[in-house]
What does this fold into?
Amino acid sequence: MVPLLKIASIETLYYDRIYALHGLSLEVREKEIFTVLGPNGAGKTTLLKTIAGLLKDQPKKGTIEFLGKRIHRLPPEHISVLGIVYVPEDRGLFRELTVKENLDLGWWGRRDRGIRDDFEFVFELFPILKERATQEAETLSGGEQQMLAMARAMLRRPKLLMLDEPSLGLAPLVARHVYDALSRISQAGTTILLVEQNAKMALGIADFGYIMESGRIVLEGTSKELQENEDVKEFYLGLGGEAISPKGWRLYKKRRTW
Ligand SMILES: Nc1ncnc2c1ncn2[C@@H]1O[C@H](COP(=O)(O)OP(=O)(O)O)[C@@H](O)[C@H]1O
Ligand SMILES: [Mg+2]
It folds into this structure.
């Protein structure tokens, strides 16, 4: 079966000389949750931006195929129309617009009859958004903003939903709620590519994971395989999903087996 997304040996550079992605390859199968884990600076955000077409003239090398067709170096609007929707780390909301107005921007341009069902689905996932409908987005809590960004993304009916560290900065219970919603979105048939530093949460819902360091994939496997891997356990799971401290990181570089 052709994977939904197939990335082969891409290289993305900043200022034509700083390598952020260094011959990275990965695949995302339809209807599954894939996660890319890695420490700060590994290149996770750059990867999602490269897929979404947000970095001009990147990737410099390699190919990205979506549903068997090449999409690398297409304009971002074109990639989004194909069904790739990206929730950035800063959530990308219009801060001075209300919750409802932000949601309406999500389905803008759609003409099908499924919009009402999709609204129902996102309000069922995040009932708080209905209560906050007339409130400006900037007055929402961090968790509510993440929920709004995810709801708005779902109103575009993505074929591939990409999220950049959705649990970042959220209290554990709120992060749990966001992750439960991701599971339900997946069960309803949407393919998810999730980038995280929080390995524990991400492997808890993902089917398959990649470990990324310095712009490369250094390890891949099913969530179960990664959860049982000694290095992953020690350096990604043992620290409770917190970012690795500089001291721990040096130790890690010395001792890791990949
Ligand atoms: N706009 C930018 N200009 C120059 N370098 C950047 C820019 N964004 C990211 N980088 C560099 O690219 C590398 C990967 O960054 P990033 O993709 O943000 O990693 P992550 O999301 O895993 O923390 C880092 O070394 C970072 O400093
Ligand atoms: Mg990032």
In short: The chain has a mean pLDDT of 93.
